[in-house]
Specification:
Layout (H helix, E strand, L loop, with lengths): L2 H5 L4 H4 L9 H22 L3 H8 L7 H13 L10 H12 L3 H14 L7 H18 L7
Length: about 150
């Protein structure tokens, strides 16, 4: 699974700890479908298009205001952001759920969360991009390759 899935969130940077194998393609597609469903409320709230949602699902860095705000809404929905700051505890809780008890991966998620704990921005949409950037940079610092 990929960064956005971890973001969704998403803490989805941590999910990138395992490169997606060919036999996991179906799991990735199922995860993308789940994200599309979860994004429906944010799509409406933020005035996003299907293309904006697909960019999010496919882990494209948001480049429009609407895409950034869609990402912000998703991060808020999952407790990774409160609209003003990265939520370290929310990220760790999502990681625990997604890592299904794999303590070594949860520990990496905690390190990533600690790296990003001070990310703040009064603009919730710009904050979403700041969080994504921090999570990506921290994941790479911890040796996690985020491939699409």
């Amino acid at each position: 699974m990929k960064f956005c899935i971890a973001l969704v969130a998403f803490c989805f940077a941590v999910i990138g700890t395992v490169n997606v194998k060919a036999n996991q393609d179906e799991d990735v597609e199922q995860a993308k479908e789940v994200i599309r469903g979860l994004a429906a409320e944010c799509k409406t709230k933020e005035g996003a298009t299907d293309d904006d949602v697909e960019a999010f699902v496919n882990d494209k860095i948001p480049d429009t205001r609407t895409q950034k705000c869609l990402t912000a809404c998703m991060q808020e929905q999952f407790g990774i952001s409160n609209g003003n700051a990265f939520q370290e505890d929310g990220f760790i809780e999502i990681a625990k759920m997604l890592m299904k008890g794999d303590e070594s991966k949860v520990e990496i998620a905690k390190q990533i969360a600690a790296d990003c704990k001070d990310v703040t921005n009064d603009d919730r949409c710009e904050l979403a991009l700041d969080i994504m950037t921090c999570l990506k940079d921290s994941a790479e610092k911890h040796g996690i390759e985020l491939k699409h």
